[in-house]
Structure formats: structure tokens, C-alpha cells
Amino acid sequence: MSQFAINIIFVGGSFLLYILIAIWAKAGSTKDFYVAGGGVHPVTNGMAIGADWMSAASFISMAGLIAAGGYANSTFLMGWTGGYVLLAMLLAPYLRKFGKFTVPEFIGDRFYSKNARLVAVICLIVASVTYVIGQMAGAGVAFSRFLEVDATLGLIIAAVVVFMYAVMGGMKGITYTQVAQYCVLIIAYTIPAVFISLQLTGNALPPLGLFSTHTDSGLPILEKLNQVITDLGFNSYTADIDNKLNMVLFTLSLMIGTAGLPHVIIRFFTVPKVADARWSAGWALVFIALLYLTAPAVASMARLNLMTTIYPDGTDAAPILYEERPNWVKEWEVTGLIQFEDKNNDGRIQHYNASESFQSEAEARGWAGNELTVNRDILVLANPEIANLPGWVIGLIAAGGLAAALSTAAGLLLAISSAVSHDLIKGSINPNITEKGELLAARISMAVAIVVATWLGANPPGFAAQVVALAFGIAAASLFPALMMGIFSKRVNNVGAISGMLCGLAFTLVYIFVYKGWLFIPGTNNLPDTPENWVLGISPLSIGAVGAIVNFAVAFVVSNATEEPPVEIQELVESVRYPRGAGQAQDH
């Protein structure tokens, strides 16, 4: 059987499973559509959170980032994991106690203002749309290789599948679909990692294999990897980070952005009571850890496999002839995600760091520039092929990559849909809309969101994890401070919260847009997105943490300069912080 046929079986079979689940769990009411009826078991919810959480960025792009940057890019791992702990401890139980369907609804009621709710809707849509671009881009990467179609056609196929199960089932359909998607993605991620760890180290547990001995060389695997890449001008894989300020801010931005992302927060509204929200958080942490503990090993082994494919004898003396390149390189070249240019016309593939520091060494070897460009997002997907694993493993990881992208995309689209139908239409435009009308509006808004996300996903402003990091920065600067102040401060009022959200969002977007070239500021000459041009060395991916500080500061200053919130609002905050019951989600 051909590899293409195997891929079709795995991917097509998983898609059929998702659609059948959506038909079985079709939403019949707004409560089903928004919170799955409020009766999801904590273990089921924890698994669904795990799938919602582990997006294309986690499955496809995070290991690729760590593989490319080593320790320097471990900030993604630390930030996303730490953020989940913040969410589980500081926000989820209290928001569940408040008992609303959506994040904007909480902000609107807590800050007793329709305007606050509208601002929260804007922040949610901006962050969620940015995030979903990364998921659709990741789906396009997976489709373009494994189904051998154009990336744009892959996006359209992904959009159709999401449309069928998300629009039909709402949160109820998405919840049980995500349970299936978690099972697919964690098996798909773990099995290739075990195979590759056994090949390279003889250790069947990838996290332990990362600290084991490389079978062929007898060196510790990280030492072997450092040796191979530093000989080619790349930074040491385990090198320390120079800009500690940017590292801290970036990790913080990912952490608080994670805690402020609505598509995960709304999952805690699907369980019957507050205690179940806490148990859901604990189970989700277990399910997430299974992948996150494996990712660093997958990253380092993928990088080593890539380098030893190009330099088969383990040294930089004899790079492989282009005509003798393995089949996996040929297959990925078709997608355009691997590109080769023979700059010195010697017929060999020179892959090295073409920086000024290595230029004289490269010229002495007769090299005229780096000749191989590898998209970081393909490393996890290509890993089984690089290691010559069985065809069914390749088909499995194809299904896993798509499950990761589609599970998070569905959760984000539901968050967008809920914000439009429940917070914008029912909350402001037409408060008297019937439940049937609201359900129709939710489905229409989700369909529109899918179309927009697909169009943007065809032209993403970076690779999957980079786009996702921008979304986290936006959420960090806008929603997280409002949620924290709404729960833990009785003094912050509606004027302060609105001012804080707008200032935090505007500050962050302007900084990002200037350095990403999307906004021209006279006198800046479209500043290049490089460390020497950043203010105090702070990357656009890290600015969300500073935006959050701006949000907190503006909110507190404005609140203290204006009237205190009403007594009933202060009592409401007190009741949320010290739960006496297990409030039920209500229809409003």
C-alpha cells in the first residue's frame, strides 16, 4: 500500500470519527452550544482542555522552534506550561463560580457596563482571530504534505471539516470531538518519539532519552548535537540566553496570555460545579504533561536527525550530494517547505549558519552561502520519515498534526461565535432575541469566522508558533488584567477597566504592527524586526507583558481617580473570591 493511501486512511478515518461524534452530540439549545449543557465530567473536560490547549503550535511548531533555537526557545515550553498553572489556580474556579457563559459577559457584569462588555468582545476577537490564523496555517502545512495537495486547498478542506462538526455541535459537539482528537494527537506524538529515542539512544522513554548516550558516537546526545551544529557555525544548542530581560518578558507574556485566552477559560463553564472545575484543571495538567515532557526530546532528536541526514559521516567535511538526497527531502520539496539552491555549483547540500562570524570559515571550504531552507513547522511531521519509521507511523502523525490544529481552531471559533452572538447581538444589539434566533446567530457567526480564518490562514504573518505568540501577547495585554482585577480587586471600576483594556491593547498592537511592518510611523522608516531595533531589546513577541503592566497601571490610576464601584458589585466580588456554592451557568 502506498504512503498516500495510508495517510488517507488515517486522516480520513479520524475526520469521519469527528463528524459522527458531532452528529451524535448535536447542540439543541444555546446552553448546549455555549457550555455543552453544563454537565461534562471532569476527566472528559480535562482531556478536551488538553486537546484545546495543545494546538498546532504545541504539536507542530513548538518542537520545531526548540530544535532550531535550543535552550533559547525553551521559553515557549515554560511560558505555556506556567500559564496553564496560573489559569487553573487564579482564574478558572472563580470564573466558574461566577456562572456566566463567556469572558465578555463576566467582564460586562463585573464592571457593570455594556461598554466594558463590548471592549472585551473586541479584545477577544482580535486575540482569537490572531490565534486561529496559526492553527489554520499549521493545518495547511500538514495537509500540503500528507494529502499531497496545495496548502490553500488543504486550508479549505480543514475549514470544511471544522464547519461540519463545530457549527453543528457547538460546545457539546466540540467537547466530545476534542476527546477523540486528544487521543489521536497524543498517540501520534508519543509513538514516533519512542521509536526515534530507541534508535538514537536505546531508551524507550523520550524524556530520559534526552539525557542518555548517543548510540553511534558514545557521547551524551546533547553533547553530540552541540558538536555537530557548532562545527557549522550555529549557536550551541544548550547555550545560555544573552537578553535576560526579553526572555523574562516573553515567558511572562506567554504565561499571562495563556491565562487570558477565552477558548480555554470557557471550557471550565461546562462542568456542573466549582469543585469539578478544579478537578478538570488537574486532569488537564496530567494530559498536557504527557506531550510537554516529550517535546524537548523530540526537538533535539529531530535536529540531530536532520543534521546527520545532510552530513551522513557525522562531520561537515562531506555534505550529501543533492541527487542522493533521501526521499523525505524530495517529498517535502514538492510542498515548498524545503528549498535547495546550489550556490557554489558543487552538487552538494551545504547547510550551515551563514552569519558574519562563520563567513571566513565557509569561504575557506568553498561554500557560497547556506543552500537549504527548512520550514521549522515541518520537523515534527517529517521526523518519522527522517528516521525511516513504518508508513503507518507517518499516517498516524499526519492525523495527529491535523487533530491538534483543528481541535484548537474549533475552540477559538466557538469563543468568537459566542462573543458575537451572546455578547454582541443578545447583550447589546437585540436583547429580546429568542433562543432559536440566538442559536442561529451563533452558527452563522461561526461560519463567517471560519471563512475569515481560512482566508487569513492562507497568508499568515509568520510560522505557526510565532503567530500564536502574538495572540498570547494581545490576550496578556487586554483580557488577563481585566479578569484578575475583576476577581481580586473591589476598587477597580468600569471606567478604569475600560481604560486599562483599551490602553493595553492599543500599546501592544502599535508596537507589534510597527516592527512587523504592518503600520507605518513617520520617522521610523519601517523599523526591521531585529534585536538592535527593539526598544530595550524587547521583542514584539514579548511586548504583551509590558502591555499588561500598562493595563494594570491605567486601570488602577483611573479607578482611584473616579467613584468606587457600587456596593452590590463589591459584594459580588467578595462572593466570587470566597465560594459558598457551585453556581450554575445561566441564560441571559
Automatic annotation (TrEMBL):
Keywords for this protein: Membrane, Symport, Transmembrane, Transmembrane helix, Transport
Single GO term (MF): symporter activity
NCBIfam families cross-referenced by the UniProt entry: Na_symport_lg (TIGR03648)
PANTHER family for this protein: NA(+):SOLUTE SYMPORTER (SSF FAMILY), SODIUM/PROLINE SYMPORTER-RELATED
Family statement: Belongs to the sodium:solute symporter (SSF) (TC 2.A.21) family.
Membrane topology designation: Multi-pass membrane protein
Membrane-traversing stretches: 6-25, 46-71, 77-95, 116-134, 146-167, 179-200, 247-269, 281-302, 392-416, 437-457, 463-483, 495-514, 534-558
Entry-linked Pfam families: SSF
Keyword set includes Phosphoprotein: no
Keyword Transmembrane among record annotations: yes
Protein name: Cation/acetate symporter
Protein's cellular compartments: Membrane
Domain of life: Bacteria
GO annotations of cellular component type: plasma membrane
UniProt-listed InterPro entries: Na/Glc_symporter_sf, Na/solute_symporter, Na/solute_symporter_VC_2705, Sodium:Solute_Symporter
